[in-house]
Structures are given as structure tokens and as C-alpha cells.
Amino acid sequence: MNTEKVDVLVIGAGPAGTVAASIVNKAGFKVKIVEKQKFPRFVIGESLLPRCMEALTDAGFVEAVEAKGFQKKFGAKFVKNGVICDYFFSDQFTDGWNWTWQVPRSEFDKTLADTCESMGIPVHYETTVTDIKFNGSDSITTVEDIDGNQTQIEARFIIDGSGYGRVIPKLFNLDKPSGLPQRKALFTHTVDVKRNLFEEPNRITIVVHKPGVWVWIIPFSSGVTSLGFVGDPDFFAGYEGADDEAKLRSLIAAEPYLSERFKDVEFVFEPRILQAWSSTTNTFHGEGFVLTGNVTEFLDPIFSSGVTLATVSSQNAAKLVVRKLNGEDIDWETEYTEKVMQGVDVFRSYVNAWYEGTLDTIFFSGTFVPEIKNQICSVLAGYVWDQQNPYVKNHDTAIKKLARIIKLGEQINSPV
Ligand code: FAD
């Protein structure tokens, strides 16, 4: 069996893996990425948040992504029964990026991986991690290529950015169930020929279809638009349709906000289903490894937090790995896990508030104080580490309190 030696082995060439690899490589360490699939490959997660631009900048990716001409995204629009709540990132409370992109992930992720290669980082595609043995913080990882050839990679540290593959949690039994209820998505890409008659493409639109069921509309610069329904698995079970395409078409027909624009549109691919995506692990680090991106904790797609949490966790992890390889002692729990969980926990409060209907009360009340709206806008832009923002600092209580005040105001103002 061939043997190779690197300082850092990165598992996965998604946003998490590539951001981490680039930052460690820039610090002068020898890095290699192993990636199970051949790129470009499909993965869901197409609407980015402004906060991820800081991680992409740190990794040196922004110029290459900009050159691809992806659709720029300046905000988010929420719609319920024809009532619209618009957020523009330019109005947000936190200083930072006020735009980002909406991307077909196959092209976006390939751009990041190609940029890594152009920096001199080898990316081995169609190469799957099958085994890892740790000896202290040193490790020997066995990988297998598409022809069944095995190689052993000796590394001083491993960064696991394997996303839904969850390599280290699975190999070492670290996975634990997420506390969130299981949800399901049915989605496709559409040839959005009527787009200009309906709305500008420069933001994500989220449509509240029924309590607990919502739709994403994510236009790309190519004229194709990503469209997906998310909800309780029982909701889909109750829908008519011989196959997933028929089911999605009847769902579109049943939602007034979508029916005219997406009626009879061409689907770019047969609708796909994803479900039970929420997951977490007992630990985000161990001697010789750190988990980043989706391998840590992924909650729910509602606020497009996935790629932002993936890139920001990797940005932090990579800097800690560099310090560790330079001989520093790292308190991983304080410097890594707690920071990642700060962001995850803010999003968790908003995800729960969304499915409980608390955010509906706030978003569609029509009595939204601009200062508060700007603070919530920063959360939606991914600035979930800004402790100056009361809607970050008191994430668990602030939105509930606000919804109560709005409801009270509605009661007081309602005719007797
Ligand atoms: P990934 O992008 O999954 O990359 C991991 C890579 O590791 C893959 O390429 C995989 O092939 C590779 N790998 C796996 N196993 C192995 C192995 N054994 N050996 C080698 N390589 C391996 N996020 C957003 O930001 N915006 C959205 O709009 C959004 N919408 C979503 C909608 C749905 C329905 C769902 C379920 C998720 C959504 N997400 C969204 C979340 C998003 O998909 C993820 O958070 C994001 O892709 C995580 O990036 P990552 O780099 O951690 O993992």
C-alpha cells in the first residue's frame, strides 16, 4: 500500500473542507484534501449569508467566485397570505457585508476546490476515507480510490469537513440525535421563464404555505430558480401524485404565490427528496482532529445558515490547527466548541421560533420598529456572534418577548 505524509489531512472538498485547507495551506503547512465524489457534484444549500463572505475572504476565494458571475443576493423576502416582510442586508445592525451570492452548489463548490488546487493544495477526487487510526494526535488514514486502490495518509492533524458523510463521528461512534423534529424537503431546479413578471431575482423568497410548511425560491443568474417545499413528513404523505414530479406540481398549484409563476415550468431534474438532516455529535474535537461544517451540527434550512456555519467553523478551526501545529496548547472547548455553539444556538432559537409561529407574528405584524428589524436582519445575515446585538445576545428570550408585545398591541387595538 502507498503511504503519504502531510501535516493536515482535510476530509471533504465542500465549503467547510476547502476554507479550512486554504487557511492552513496559507500558514505554510502541507495539506491534502480527499473527496469522495467527482466534482462538479450536486449538493443542496444554495442561498448564502453575508457573514460567510468573511470566511471566503480569509480563505482567498472571493475573487474566483466573483469571476463566475453568480447571482448577487441583497436580502430575504418572507411572504404569507400575500403579506410581504422584506429584509435588506444594507439595513442591518451589525457592521459587515451587506450582500452575498445565490449559487448552484455544484459550480460554487468546484470553484472553491479549483482555487485550492491553484494554491497548490492537492485535491484527490473519488477518494473515500475508510479507516482512521490515531496514535496520540498523529494519525494514519486509509483512503480508497475509485479503482479500489488503497493509500495510507499519515497526518499530524485531521480536519473533518465531510458534511453529510460524517466520517469521524461514524467511525468513532460520536453521533447523537439532534433535538429537532425530523423534516422533509421536496425540491428541484426550474426553468424560471416568468421570473421577471413576478419579482427581482436578487434575494431569497420564503413563502409560508401552511403552519410548519414553507417554500424556498432561490433564483440563479442563469435564469434557473431553485424551488423547494419543506415541512413535516406527514404533510407530504397527504399529497396527491403518482411520483415526486406530480407531487411537486400539485403542491405548486396549491400555493397561490407560486402557481402562476411555476405552473408548467420545466424541471431541470426529477424532484429530489431529503429528510431527517438534523444531526449532531458528542464532541467537535479530539486529540488529532477537529470536526467542521455540517459534521458539527446542522439544524434546518429555513435561515440558510448551513454554508455560513460551515465556512465560519472551518475558518476558526483552521486557525486553531495552525496554532496547535506551531506548538501552542489549545483549549478546544472554549476556543472552538463554545464559539461554534454560540452561532448554532442563536440559529436554533430562530428555527424553533419559526416553526412555532413566533416569527410569523413578528414578520407579518406590520408594526415592526425599524431598529429591532435591523437587529433581526443581522441574525438573518449570519452575524450571530455579535454580542452587541440584543437579538443575538438574548436570542432565546428576545423574539418571544417581542411577539408577546406585538400580540398585546393587536389585542389593545382590536375593536371591542
Ligand atoms: P458538504 O457540502 O456536504 O461537503 C462535504 C463533502 O465531503 C462532500 O463533497 C462529500 O462528498 C465529502 N465526503 C463525504 N464523505 C466522505 C468520505 N468518506 N471521504 C471523503 N469525502 C467525503 N445551507 C445554506 O447555507 N443555504 C441554503 O439555502 C441551504 N439549503 C438547504 C436545504 C436543505 C433541504 C438541506 C437539507 C440543507 C440546506 N443547507 C443550506 C445546508 C447545506 O447543505 C450544508 O450546510 C452545507 O452543504 C455544509 O457544507 P459542508 O462543507 O459542511 O458539507
TrEMBL record:
Q: Which residues form a coiled coil?
A: none
Which residues does the UniProt record annotate as the domain FAD-binding? Answer: 5-163
Q: Which Gene Ontology molecular-function terms are recorded?
A: FAD binding
Q: What domain of life does the UniProt record list for this protein's source? A: Bacteria
Gene3D superfamilies listed in its UniProt record: FAD/NAD(P)-binding domain
Q: What is this protein called?
A: NAD(P)/FAD-dependent oxidoreductase
Q: Which organism is it from?
A: Mucilaginibacter ginsenosidivorax
